[in-house]
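Researcher: Let's do a round of design. I'm pasting the structure tokens now; please hold your answer until I've finished.
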């Protein structure tokens, strides 16, 4: 469609150029005439009087000459004025005509768009081929503005052509027509199209002999152009769609192309009848949009078309931001309503010919076809992106709906429809999980990243916690005294083949696969064992363990922790559970409840990475917390920025007033430490005091 859109644009551009050219011309003509007028006036006044004076005329003669002079001046200027007006009016007329031409063009393109959309709609509704043929003819006349449209199918056994659908003027002539092979008039566009298997556009056809009335009627009057589009089947023309237009030279390149496209659509439907396939494609129950399998077919068609024409096709995969949260807080019905609203928004934003579908859950996809160049891809994507965020009301709640999307383009990113889906989905999944309204275009590095993730996932699946993992310990010290007060357990994975994988990389994967439950349980068991052992050797410490939200939300978590803690024989050491700020905010009510139960078991809860999320301090009072761990970025910014320094200081003071122990993370330099001391921060952790290290090294360093 975009290329056709391009033509429309070109129409505007041409007019724009013409308009500016004519206003340019008008200015110069006006200036020129004014200049000539001025020049003549000056000459006239300046020299004619002198000239008259030289003639030595009597006063009476001189007065008469003066009078003629005046008349002469008026006549010359009137002629000039006439020329000027004629010139500009002619220019105006020309640009009006150009404008009208492009308006007609625009209307005709719009008309054709409506037609293609209606026909594709019928196709997607799964109308059976006969209904689809009827609908095609009806739409061609009603929307496409053709005088007459009819479809006839070729019966190879009986070697005859039979009308199967028709609409418009003179349809009585084609209704129920059966024409034997030898009766087909050789010079009818229909016959030519059937014989050659190629579309025939006759822009001068005023008399198609196939329409000459067999029952005495005189044919269909008043058409000026005819087109016959073969309907392919098994590689041969299985039938023909014929349309007649009253507009002379109606079938230009764009219109011809659209008709060929319609021929392809109805051929596909006819083909399905032949092969006995169901003609009703699947529809999504909630949104009534086409499902994944239909979209895959559409994408394949768009790719084939783009390939043939040397154009582009694109696939967008869209995901509603925070949909789970909407579902959880407002309920399933509200979730369904959002899906329907988004379906409507997307359907309204696409251009005719593009196909919107639902892939499942909160995922939608759009097949964008007929994109003349890569700029068109970006324009189409932007147009859809601009619909969001949108505020919608669900019962009494207001929700801001936004989507994040991934885009892949044929042929740049993918060679076929299947690859196009894979790439667009990869791009979509590359958006950060908490992002809103992000657009990610597919990049080859994503593929590399995905390959690496798959490799890691499979290695992780094969890893047994007690063999593949171990813990390192990072000291936590008291700022005032420099004394060791605790240690944080940090998980390490050393794969024999892939080497050391950082926790930032493998923990999200373990969360995705659910393995985090087993691994996390192993960590807690190890942590408790180590806490006991250190306390027994005279190092009673606060032992910090990181727990992911998924673990916390797991039903058995509190019970399993209680079970592990039953083996605890000493209570002179403390278990501290760290939960990151962003995770705690994500699902605060349920997690707050788990936190309360954990505290009942005698553990402390610290909020990890504080300052990376958006929690207000006041919010913290509502959560059952014992401590705050200030994120590394907080400390670094406090050192650089005076305002930030004030903020950090205030946070520390307020947190302590709320009874929370504040631990600063990522303390690397003396300067950091001095700053924290001035702020009155109680605890600190960072490379300045020690890197994460094996338990034995920590003992040796700090005993
Ligand atoms: P975290 O809980 O914020 O842990 C602190 C991270 O900061 C550690 O990275 C540590 O090595 C690093 N770090 C400590 N001091 C400094 C410093 O002075 N400068 C700098 N630049 N970095 C410092 P690590 O070990 O790579 O762990 C990354 C994250 O992985 C942890 O962040 C934590 O969120 C997660 N993680 C680690 N172990 C576990 C675990 O057993 N379970 C869960 N769920 N998550 C874990
Ligand atoms: Ca931590
Ligand atoms: Ca942290």
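Researcher: That's everything. Go ahead.
Model: Designed sequence:
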């Amino acid at each position: 469609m975009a290329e056709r859109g391009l033509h429309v644009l070109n129409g505007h551009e041409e007019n724009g150029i013409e308009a500016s050219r004519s206003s340019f011309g008008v200015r110069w003509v006006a200036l020129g005439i004014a200049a000539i007028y001025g020049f003549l006036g000056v000459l006239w006044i300046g020299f004619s009087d002198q000239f008259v004076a030289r003639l030595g005329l009597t006063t009476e003669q001189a007065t008469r000459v003066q009078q003629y002079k005046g008349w002469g001046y008026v006549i010359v200027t009137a002629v000039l004025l006439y020329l000027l007006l004629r010139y500009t009016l002619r220019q105006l007329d020309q640009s009006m005509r150009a404008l009208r031409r492009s308006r007609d063009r625009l209307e005709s393109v719009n008309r054709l768009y409506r037609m293609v959309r209606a026909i594709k709609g019928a196709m997607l509704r799964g109308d059976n081929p006969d209904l689809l043929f009827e609908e095609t003819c009806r739409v061609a006349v009603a929307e496409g503005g053709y005088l007459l449209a009819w479809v006839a199918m070729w019966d190879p056994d009986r070697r005859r052509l039979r009308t199967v659908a028709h609409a418009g003027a003179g349809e009585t002539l084609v209704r129920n027509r059966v024409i034997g092979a030898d009766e087909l008039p050789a010079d009818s566009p229909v016959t030519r199209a059937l014989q050659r298997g190629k579309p025939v556009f006759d822009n001068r056809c005023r008399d198609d002999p196939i329409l000459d009335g067999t029952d005495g009627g005189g044919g269909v009057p008043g058409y000026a152009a005819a087109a016959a589009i073969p309907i392919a089947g098994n590689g041969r023309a299985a039938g023909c769609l014929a349309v007649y237009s009253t507009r002379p030279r109606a079938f230009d390149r764009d219109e011809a192309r659209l008709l060929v496209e319609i021929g392809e659509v109805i051929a596909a439907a006819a083909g399905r009848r032949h092969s006995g396939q169901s003609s009703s494609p699947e529809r999504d129950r909630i949104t009534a949009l086409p499902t994944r399998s239909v979209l895959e077919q559409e994408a394949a068609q768009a790719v084939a078309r783009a390939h043939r024409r040397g154009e582009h096709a694109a696939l967008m995969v869209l995901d509603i931001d925070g949909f789970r949260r909407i579902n959880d807080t407002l309920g399933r019905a509200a979730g369904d309503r959002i899906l329907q609203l988004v379906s409507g928004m997307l359907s309204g934003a696409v251009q005719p010919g593009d196909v919107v579908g639902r892939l499942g859950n909160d995922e939608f996809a759009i097949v964008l076809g007929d994109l003349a160049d890569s700029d068109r891809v970006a324009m189409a994507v932007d147009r859809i992106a601009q619909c969001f965020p949108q505020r919608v009301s669900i019962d009494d709640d207001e929700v801001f709906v936004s989507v994040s999307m991934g885009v892949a383009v044929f042929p740049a990113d993918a060679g076929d429809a299947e690859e196009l889906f894979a790439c667009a989905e990869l791009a979509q999944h590359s958006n950060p999980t908490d992002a809103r309204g992000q657009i990610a275009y597919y990049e080859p590095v994503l593929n590399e990243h995905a390959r690496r993730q798959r490799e890691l996932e499979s290695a992780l699946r094969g890893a047994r916690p007690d063999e593949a993992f171990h813990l390192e310990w990072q000291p936590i010290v008291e700022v005032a005294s420099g004394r060791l007060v605790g240690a944080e357990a940090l998980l390490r994975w050393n794969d024999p083949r892939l080497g050391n994988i950082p926790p930032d990389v493998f923990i999200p994967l373990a969360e995705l696969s659910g393995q985090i439950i087993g691994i996390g349980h192993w960590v807690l068991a190890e942590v408790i064992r180590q806490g006991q052992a250190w306390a027994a050797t005279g190092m009673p410490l606060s032992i910090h363990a990181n727990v992911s939200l998924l673990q916390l939300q797991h039903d058995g978590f509190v019970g399993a922790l209680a079970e592990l803690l039953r083996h605890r024989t000493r209570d002179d050491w403390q278990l501290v559970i760290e939960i990151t700020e962003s995770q705690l905010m994500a699902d605060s009510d349920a997690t707050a409840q788990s936190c309360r139960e954990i505290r009942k078991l005698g553990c402390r809860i610290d909020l990890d990475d504080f300052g990376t999320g958006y929690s207000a301090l006041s919010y913290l009072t509502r959560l059952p917390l014992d401590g705050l761990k200030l994120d590394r970025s907080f400390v670094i910014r406090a050192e650089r920025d005076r305002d930030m320094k004030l903020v950090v200081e205030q946070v520390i003071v307020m947190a302590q007033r709320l009874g929370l122990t504040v631990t600063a993370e990522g303390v690397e330099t003396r300067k950091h430490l001095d700053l924290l001391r001035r702020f009155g921060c109680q605890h600190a952790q960072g490379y300045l005091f020690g890197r994460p290290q094996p338990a034995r090294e920590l003992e040796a360093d700090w005993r």
